[in-house]
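In the design runs reported in the main text, the only information available to the sequence generator was the tokenized backbone. The following block is the verbatim input for one such run; it is reproduced so that readers can re-run the procedure and compare outputs position by position.
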């Protein structure tokens, strides 16, 4: 998991979900999407209709991350090795987990 703070057009939020396969992240309060929910019956439960708000995912290349080491807002470089991808600060090359 990343614990860094991300910026989206000047807004910051906690990373709440990471999809490493797709290089996408979900940032709290950023890229909010609305979905209309119809009334659904599942396993005896009724999910009431309404509008659900949820965070959409963002590709990591569209996300700025504040490097924990140099404190600069930076785009992260992704290095792939042995099927693992690591993220590196483009400023100071510190490894960002
Ligand atoms: Zn850095």
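Verbatim output:
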């Amino acid at each position: 998991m990343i614990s860094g703070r991300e910026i989206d057009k000047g807004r910051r939020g906690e990373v709440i979900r990471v999809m490493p396969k797709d290089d996408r992240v979900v940032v709290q309060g950023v890229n909010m999407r609305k979905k209309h929910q119809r009334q659904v019956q599942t396993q005896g439960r009724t999910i009431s209709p309404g509008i659900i708000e949820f965070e959409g995912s963002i590709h990591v290349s569209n996300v700025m991350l504040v490097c924990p080491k140099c404190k600069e807002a930076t785009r992260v470089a992704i290095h792939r090795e042995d099927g693992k991808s690591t993220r590196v600060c483009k400023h100071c090359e510190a490894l960002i987990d």
